[in-house]
Amino acid sequence: MELKVPVARLDPLCFYTLRDAAIGNDAKARMRFAMWCVDNDLLSRAQLQVKKAAKADPKLLEDLAEGKYPEIREKIAARILASAEGDLAAGQIDMARQKLEILLARLSDTEAGGKARDVIRTCEAKGAEADAKAAADAQAKLDEAARKAGEARAKLLGEVDAEYEKGRADATDGLTEDDHGKALGIFERALGHGESAMKKLDSIEKRYPDDADFLSEAAARRQKLLQGMVKIHVHRADLYIWRGSLPNAKKEIDAARKLVPSSPDIEAAMQRLLAAEEDDDTLETRYLRERRQSGSRSPRRARAAAAAAAEHRIPSGELHNA
């Protein structure tokens, strides 16, 4: 007796386990399965299926690079962007920014990656509004003495906060910069602001070693600075991986580890580096490297070139070489 159940009625994770085991070495079936994974928001599993397909049929690689693989990357990017926009609408600013950073750091050449440049600016503005409101609400709940003490501490830490904001602004500029060489420089400038903020924080803490409330606020700022600097090192590492400069990527990851011995961001970056170093890394890194060597532009540059062509009636052949 055979019982047939529509796939839509099964839990996606349950079906994934069953289907993954049943496919075997059928590379084309794995590619179809990868597309199903994307449609069901199993994004990391979609990438895994593509790798398994390439391993099962190495000759499939060229077809992947020219056909389904770019389509999968576009779908993954679109899903991440939609999720980030949903978080933003729900007021989950930090979650939205994390997803937008993924898009801009590793999928910026997709259409959704291009759109993320504008969305992250909106995210920054809403985040600033939310932070200001939270601070005002917290101040309103304090009595006069506590409020004055809080204002004094905030004034004392003002220079630290100013450096942090400059670094955060540079980090956003680095993420949205099309030119990777310029982006690396902008990120380096952001790290400089972070280091400056750390030095100011060290100096102030030494002057108030017995003020428990102040030390608590200073510790919170230090943690925020470290997290921000680690992310910038990881962004620089991703840029170096894309450019094929793996030793420099390793230096950035090592620099991040000196700040924070271990974090999910650092470990994920290390896995991407190891994948790029392996001989069987036949997908993401090779795909990006070939795009770089062919002179492919980001979506924003492509749209700008197209707009210029339309305005000045540039022949299509010249547009392709622009």
Describe this structure in words.
With 322 residues, the chain is mainly alpha-helical. The chain has a domain at 142-277. It is 81% helix and 0% strand. It contains 16 helices and no strands. It has helices at 12-23, 27-39, 43-56, 60-66, 68-89, 93-106, 111-140, 144-156, 158-176, 180-207, 212-243, 246-259, 264-277, 284-293, 299-312, 316-320. The longest helix has 32 residues, at 212-243. 28% of the residues are buried. Residues 297-322 have low confidence and may be disordered.
- Please give the alpha-carbon distance between the first and last residues: 63 Å
How much strand content do the residues show? under 5%
Shape: elongated
Tally of helical segments: 16
- Low-pLDDT stretches are 297-322
Q: What is the average per-residue confidence, as pLDDT, rounded to a whole number?
A: 81
In short:
The protein has 322 residues and is an all-alpha fold. The chain has helices spanning 12-23, 27-39, 43-56, 60-66, 68-89, 93-106, 111-140, 144-156, 158-176, 180-207, 212-243, 246-259, 264-277, 284-293, 299-312, 316-320.
Which helices and strands, and how do they pair?
Elements: H1 12-23, H2 27-39, H3 43-56, H4 60-66, H5 68-89, H6 93-106, H7 111-140, H8 144-156, H9 158-176, H10 180-207, H11 212-243, H12 246-259, H13 264-277, H14 284-293, H15 299-312, H16 316-320
Helix pairs in contact: 1-2, 2-3, 2-5, 5-6, 5-7, 6-7, 9-10, 9-11, 10-11, 11-12, 11-13, 12-13
Essential attributes:
322 residues, mainly alpha, 0% strand, 16 helices, disordered C terminus
